[in-house]
Write a structure and sequence with these properties.
The chain contains 21 helices and 17 strands. It has helices spanning about 5-10, 20-25, 60-70, 80-90, 110-125, 140-145, 160-190, 205-215, 230-240, 260-265, 285, 305-315, 340-345, 350-360, 375-390, 400-405, 415-425, 435-440, 455-470, 475-480, 485-495, and strands at about 40, 50-55, 75-80, 95-100, 130-135, 150-155, 220-225, 250-255, 270, 280, 290-295, 315-320, 325-330, 330-335, 360-365, 395, 430-435.
């Protein structure tokens, strides 16, 4: 039975059907309340209540706009100064800003508002800004649009037109942010092709049963096993069996990230946070919001960053580098390691509370040498893939070749098997893979049995050994084999040994 297909079948029944964020009604209060406490930011674009920041120095204008927007279901935050506007934009996330150009009584030049507009664009270039002012002119409108405003509304405004502009800009702003997120996801996920989980051995049945049980949940899973056993594929299977399957699974190879940029990779940064931070960058936690975050080689995370990771895992909260704004995300955590984390804890290299958070459930993947029944299936799968890639007319493996595959201990596990089959496809000269095409070291106790080999395989092996003993000298090898030089040349050509 192909257990991976069974998991797919279970998903198709709808029992574990994924509910989108919109169906779940995801949304959280965003911003700072009157007590000044830091608010939590919902990063689910397009899912929460539209949030509007209104800036004006006239209390009556602010009150009128609140009364206008409240029946529309908008959440409104207000500020009466340029400094208050900047603080609000830095502190929380908004869908649109509606702002006056003048905040000092008696000043009608709009200069303060133009500077404020430029500053808001520096903080968040995707945030739509609509300018509303009683001191409008064609020249001022042109300058406002040049500095990044999306629209210009004169006072007194018409309610229907103002509401229509707001709705349009909210949708456009959310679409732009979602597009940027997708672009970064695509850059991150590009080249990660779908792979199949092939497992039919008795040693893998507990693994598949655990995937079926915990896959549909949001439980954290720690996947352990030697290098090359396929821990990433198990993570993909868990994600595919979950209610988050329609969202992204973001993979982070923690061992491949330099410590100097580790925090930025996980949590992101804002423009200007450090020397090379020329623009805002979404971290992997933000990219995985609503989906699954897979942290591979988890034992390599620097000890000084483990507390920040623990906080993000426990509450979904973090601050991008250079920002005081707390972001909140909803991710399911999967992690993997080939290390013994209990020993790492004892040696003081890994936090025990972080380990508790990671291994709600642990899945151990047996090495390939412990699941020999899967070797022919895996080898055939890799053969089909590489034959298509290199366009070679190869039909399969010789029986003696299969025996060599079964006898080899595979210290590099499934990854080594894949690379071995790829090499064999490139080296093969006939329609079937020979044992010699594999390039594997053959020990005396692993030598192929003569009664299981074809005549062509026996002849090829005899020629290879004779050529090796003769150091490549055709005449000496031919004499040892009892062949003429011409006969040996023809056989060398036949078997691709020239």
């Amino acid at each position: 039975m192909a257990h991976g297909l069974q998991i797919e079948k279970w998903r198709s029944t709808g029992v574990f059907r994924y509910n989108t964020l919109k169906e779940q009604g995801k949304g959280a209060f965003v911003g700072a309340d009157s007590s000044g406490e830091r608010a939590l930011v919902d990063s689910g674009f397009g899912q929460s209540t539209p949030r509007i920041l209104v800036g004006d120095d006239e209390p009556d204008v602010l009150k009128a706009l609140r009364l206008l927007f409240k029946p529309e279901g908008f959440h409104v935050e207000t500020a009466s100064s340029a400094a208050g506007m900047i603080a609000a934009v830095r502190q929380a996330e908004f869908d649109v800003v509606l702002m006056d150009l003048n905040y000092v009584r008696g000043n009608t030049s709009g200069a303060e508002g133009l500077d404020l507009l430029s500053e808001i664009q520096k903080i968040d270039s995707t945030l739509p800004v609509i300018v509303i002012t009683a001191w409008g002119s064609v020249e001022l409108a042109v300058e406002v649009m040049r500095r990044g405003a999306r629209d210009f509304v004169p006072k007194p405004w018409k309610n229907e037109r103002l509401l229509a502009i707001l709705r349009t800009q909210i949708e456009l702003g959310r679409a732009l942010r979602r597009e940027q997120q997708l672009e970064q996801e695509n850059l991150l996920l590009r080249g990660q092709s779908e792979q199949r989980l092939i497992a039919d051995s008795a040693a893998m049945r507990p693994v598949l049963e655990t995937i079926a049980r915990v896959g549909p949940s949001d439980a954290s899973v720690l996947i352990t096993g030697e290098n090359g056993v396929g821990k990433g594929l198990i993570a993909q299977a868990l994600h595919a069996a979950s209610m988050r399957a329609e969202q992204s699974m973001v993979t982070v190879n923690t061992s491949g990230i330099p410590e100097t940029v580790f925090e930025s990779e996980l949590f992101g940064h804002v423009a200007g946070a450090f020397t090379d931070a020329k623009s805002d960058r979404m971290g992997r936690f933000r990219l995985a919001d609503g989906g699954t975050l897979f942290l591979d080689e988890i034992a390599t995370i620097p000890t000084n960053l483990q507390p920040k990771l623990l906080r993000a895992l426990e509450g979904g909260e973090f601050e991008p580098i250079g920002s005081s704004k707390t972001s909140k995300v909803d991710v399911r955590l999967l992690s993997a390691t080939n290390a013994n984390l209990t020993e790492e804890v004892e040696q003081g290299r890994f936090r025990q509370d972080l380990l508790y958070r990671l291994n709600t459930v642990e899945i151990h993947i047996p090495p390939l040498r412990a699941r020999k029944e899967d070797i022919p299936l895996l080898a055939t799968h890799f053969l089909n893939r590489h034959v298509g890639r290199y366009r070679k007319p190869i039909a399969g493996f010789e029986s003696s070749c299969v025996q060599v595959l079964l006898d080899y201990p595979w210290p590099g596990n499934v990854r080594e098997l894949d690379h071995t089959v790829e090499r064999a496809v490139l080296m093969a000269s006939g329609e079937r893979i020979q044992a010699s095409d594999l390039g594997l070291p053959v020990r005396a106790d692993q030598a192929p049995r003569w009664d299981e080999m074809t005549l062509d395989e026996i002849e090829r092996m005899a020629i290879e050994r004779a050529m090796a003993r003769a150091d490549g000298d055709i005449s000496s090898a031919a004499k040892a084999l009892g062949l003429s030089r011409g006969s040996l040349y023809r056989r060398l050509e036949k078997y691709g040994l020239q």
